[in-house]
Design a protein that fits this description.
Layout lengths: L1 H10 L11 E2 L5 H9 L4 E4 L2 H14 L4 E4 L8 H7 L2 E5 L2 H14 L4 E5 L13 H14 L4 E6 L8 H13 L4 E4 L1
Parallel strand pairs: 1-2, 2-3, 3-4, 4-5, 5-6, 6-7
Length: about 180
């Protein structure tokens, strides 16, 4: 997988460090997590705060270079737990959540990176801000709530080619001066 990522980065005129692999560890048994850690993977994505707390609590002490990303939806009442555990929260999709994250960051003195989730396919069953509302949420997250917004995240519709969705996300990121894109 890493060799394919490196080759794709080179083909796109990017360096190996420009592209990263997030291993989605949700619902995986400990044996698989330990095997991937032993292979050197250090960036993991989790969908649920409580599941991540159980899975990564002890492992945090073992692996100082571990990076945990919340890639699932976040309820406002779990914002403090998420800020305490994760290095990045990739699913900011509404002002109420921005306010909760800002309050938790202030309280805990921790500032995980934030990505705004954009629902590029405007699918009703998926989280994320709609593309026409993305600029306003990015602005509010930065200016009103003081969040460290680093980029954008999207999950294109499964039944459509992903390219146009990735291009739309890149366009929104460029006009907002954001450099990180997470596109699954």
């Amino acid at each position: 997988i890493l060799a394919r990522i490196e080759a794709a980065a080179k083909a796109a005129g990017r360096t190996e460090g420009d592209v990263g692999l997030v291993a989605v560890s949700k619902q995986q048994p400990d044996t698989r997590i330990d095997a991937v850690l032993a292979a050197g993977q250090r960036v993991f994505g989790e969908n649920r705060v409580q599941e991540a707390q159980v899975r990564w609590g002890a492992r945090r002490a073992q692996f100082s270079d571990l990076v945990l990303r919340l890639i699932g939806p976040l309820q406002t009442n779990k914002a403090e737990d998420a800020v305490a555990l994760f290095d990045a929260i990739d699913t900011l999709d509404r002002p109420k959540l921005a306010a909760a994250l800002a309050g938790a960051m202030h309280k805990l003195g921790r500032r995980p990176d934030v990505l705004v989730q954009v629902n590029t396919g405007e699918e009703p069953q998926k989280g994320g801000v709609s593309p026409p509302e993305a600029d306003a949420l990015i602005h509010a997250a930065r200016e009103t709530y003081g969040l460290p917004v680093r980029g954008l995240m999207c999950i294109p519709p499964a039944n459509e080619p992903p390219g146009p969705h990735f291009a739309l996300l890149a366009k929104i990121a460029a006009r907002n001066g954001l450099s990180q894109l997470s596109m699954g």
